[in-house]
Amino acid sequence: MLEYVFEKLSYPDRRAYFKDGESALAYMNAPYAEPFLVLSDIDHSYTDGADLNTQLSTDIEIRRTGIPYLYLTNRANHELIIDAYDKMA
């Protein structure tokens, strides 16, 4: 769905998609990674979106970039959402 929107808007920048938080974290720590935005599902396998956000925010080099981190989810579980935002505090 997101790729469709980016294509319709003729968005030129590279996009990267990951199946889990561990893969996303490995990418973020790579020297070639230059993300401008992180869109993450709260409910990832292995490392969930809230844990990924915590790991990224504790990495001083990544935190200094000021990359916005937004949660997207299709889950209607209110507790997951509250838990994700509690971990940010």
Automatic annotation (TrEMBL):
<feature type="modified residue" description="4-aspartylphosphate">
    <location>
        <position position="41"/>
    </location>
</feature>
<dbReference type="InterPro" id="IPR001789">
    <property type="entry name" value="Sig_transdc_resp-reg_receiver"/>
</dbReference>
<dbReference type="InterPro" id="IPR011006">
    <property type="entry name" value="CheY-like_superfamily"/>
</dbReference>
<feature type="domain" description="Response regulatory">
    <location>
        <begin position="1"/>
        <end position="89"/>
    </location>
</feature>
<dbReference type="GO" id="GO:0000160">
    <property type="term" value="P:phosphorelay signal transduction system"/>
</dbReference>
<keyword id="KW-0597">Phosphoprotein</keyword>
<protein>
    <recommendedName>
        <fullName>Response regulatory domain-containing protein</fullName>
    </recommendedName>
</protein>
